[in-house]
Design a protein that fits this description.
Elements (H helix, E strand, L loop, with lengths): L4 E4 L1 E2 L2 H4 L3 E5 L5 E3 L4 E3 L15 E9 L1 E2 L3 E8 L5 E5 L5 E8 L5 E11 L3 E5 L4 E2 L3 E3 L3 E9 L7 E11 L10
Length: 177
């Protein structure tokens, strides 16, 4: 077995995440709605059926176990035909791991990155971006997830990778266990 890759978890930024999608965050934008009693923040406008009439927009709630760092991952997934929205509902910090595609469509592990998101941040992955499934940090958390699907194996591709260890930046703290 090859030695594992070590990734240091870093705060997410628009520039660093741009090759993979965009960040979703409640903030200064938005509009006042419902007679002035709420702010509406549009997070992503999915194109009509992602150009494939066999797909349906699926909205799910994921309950993710609360995990600690350091953490080892051994797989990545991607949704080759559609963007995917992931927004925390009850999460504290959570992390994402992403990488680009090689020319043969497999993950380009040389571009692997790990990002820390705060409770008010989510992401929209571009179609075909390799990523690790949701990782909630510290406690069980809920996430809203949307993507276009047809219910077939083509909705999500999964691949095994050599172990990758994810560690926190010193100011983020790690579980000593």
């Amino acid at each position: 077995m090859k030695p594992s890759i070590n990734l240091q978890l870093a705060p997410i930024s628009n520039e660093a995440f741009a090759p993979f999608g965009h960040i979703v965050q409640v903030g200064g934008s938005g509009m006042l709605v419902n007679g002035g009693t709420a702010h509406r923040f549009d997070v992503h406008a999915f194109p009509g059926r992602e150009a494939d009439p066999s797909l349906s927009l699926v909205t799910s709630i994921f309950r993710a176990d609360g995990l600690t760092l350091p953490r080892t991952i051994r797989m990545l997934e991607r949704h080759p035909r559609t963007a995917q929205l992931i927004v925390p509902i009850s999460a504290q910090d959570h992390l994402i791991v992403v990488c680009s595609n090689r020319s043969d469509g497999n993950p380009d592990l040389s571009t692997l990155g790990a990002f820390r998101l705060e409770a008010d941040q989510g992401v929209v992955y571009k179609p075909g971006v390799w990523h690790h499934p949701i990782v909630a940090i510290g406690r069980e958390s809920l996430f809203l997830v949307q993507s276009w699907q047809d219910g077939s194996d083509r909705d999500c591709e999964i691949t095994a990778i050599d172990p990758v260890s994810i560690t926190a930046l010193p100011d983020m703290g790690e579980d000593p266990a």
